[in-house]
Amino acid sequence: MRHFSPAELREYLQHADDPPLLIDVREEWEYNICQFSGSCLLPMKQLLQDPEQLDKNREIVLVCHHGIRSCQLARVLEHIGCYRVINLDGGPERWTQDLNPGMAPLLSISLPVQSGFDRVKACIIHNIMNALQGKKEYSLCVKF
Fold first, then answer.
1. Confidence band (pLDDT; 50, 70, 90) for 143?
2. What is the CATH number of the domain that holds 85?
3. Are 24 and 35 in contact (CB under 8 A)?
4. For the chain, N or C: smaller number of CB within 10 Å?
5. pTM of the model
6. CA angle at residue 87 from 41 to 131, to 5 degrees?
7. Structure confidence by residue, pLDDT tens digits, 114-129
8. Phi and psi (nearest 5°) for 75?
9. pLDDT digit string (tens) for 27-42?
């Protein structure tokens, strides 16, 4: 497995004679918020059920939110004989930060379940305001 930064991947894709298959392994709701042009959605769970569906000879770029799921999946694919796998380090989150600050990032805020609805609302507002400082556009996912 090779690891590419967003800048390295962008450069590689621009000059590739035979473009690799760009697979986004996130869930559909994540993909719908922010996606790469030319990528196909194949969630990790689905791909793990049948990893043999991929052409082992084709170069593959795996993408997920931060690059963690895609890295884990790349190891699985290598184990079954897919040796031309590239992992995008940092995923769309880092791509946005490094190369395309105008792209709407996926902000994930995990909040602890607390007693008292007003306390939860205050916590949500506080976390959203901290996460959005200086951002003009955003997509938001709040998890309880």
1. low
2. 3.40.250.10
3. yes
4. C
5. 0.72
6. 75
7. 455 555 666 666 666 6
8. -65, -40
9. 998 888 778 888 999 9
Q: Do 91 and 113 reside in the same domain of the chain?
A: no
Nearest CA to 4 out of 54, 61, 84 is that of: 61
CA-to-CA distance for 4 and 11, rounded, in angstroms? 10
Q: What percent of the chain has pLDDT over 90?
A: 51
Range of the domain at 14: 2-98
pLDDT digits (tens, 9 = 90+) for 82-95: 999 999 999 988 88
The total of structural domains in the chain comes to 2
Q: Which of 15, 95, 45, 14 is nearest to 87 (CA)?
A: 95
| C-beta of residue 44 within 8 angstroms of C-beta of residue 25 | yes
Q: How far apart are CA 128 and CA 137, in angstroms?
A: 13
pLDDT for the residue numbered 131: 64
What residues pair up with 4 in beta bridges, in sequence order? 88
Amino acid residing at 103:
M
89 and 123 in a common domain = no
Per-residue HEC secondary structure of 44-60 comes to: HHHHHHCHHHCCCCCCE
